[in-house]
Design brief:
alpha+beta; single chain; 27% helix; six-stranded antiparallel barrel; 7 strands
Length: 197
């Protein structure tokens, strides 16, 4: 399901997308749970999908702060600033984690291809989330962990915690134990400030 479209980027792996809303004619509106914190998403490309996770959000409200004197009626002013987005909306920050090609091969790390403006962002279903986190031998892996720590800033700990919670539902007992140890380590780092962001 399409939930947003790319509008800009902060870096090669940190993108901003605008959530589909009533302005996007003909599009099915996503539910708030489709673009919530730590939602895995895909951005389609040639032969592979770039996989990311939502880690930040911003509200856009052009009307806020525009209560000062005006030189003309709003309808008249609208003609003079056609480049300016007039509608309120929601922007989401997407941190890229890797790729998933159409044959099922996964890569965790910095994707080589550049994501372009207006590319569709779709919600990744549970089956593809599991596929992205499973290596060739069927074991769970999180090789993008350092990427999240380095780039998600103040959201790194809660983001990793939410990712671990999502993955723990569809893993074996031994992998679940590894995830619990990782979660305890994150809690310790968050409590005692061991992780420098």
């Amino acid at each position: 399901m399409k939930i947003a479209k790319i509008v800009s980027s902060n870096s090669h792996i940190d993108y901003i997308a605008r959530v589909i809303d009533s302005v996007d004619a003909g599009e099915e509106l996503p539910h708030a749970s489709d673009y919530c914190f730590a939602q895995f998403v895909a951005i389609s490309g040639e032969g592979e999908d770039v996989i990311g996770v939502t880690y930040d959000s911003r509200l856009v409200n052009p009307d806020y702060g525009s209560f000062g004197p005006r030189s003309g009626p709003r309808a008249e002013l609208g003609r003079h600033n056609a480049d300016y987005v007039q509608e309120p909306g929601i922007l989401i920050g997407i941190l890229l984690l890797g790729t998933l090609d159409h044959s099922g091969k996964t890569f965790h790390g910095v994707p080589r291809k550049i994501v372009r403006v207006d590319q569709a962002v779709t919600k990744l279903d549970a089956e593809r989330v599991t596929q992205f986190h499973t290596d060739g031998s069927g074991h769970l892996h999180l090789h993008y962990y350092p990427q999240v720590v380095s780039n998600a800033r103040q959201f790194a700990l809660p983001l990793l915690d939410a990712i671990i919670d999502q993955l723990s539902y569809a893993c074996t007992d031994s992998e679940g134990q590894r995830l619990r140890v990782l979660k305890q380590s994150l809690m310790w780092q968050g409590t005692f400030g061991g992780m420098k962001l």
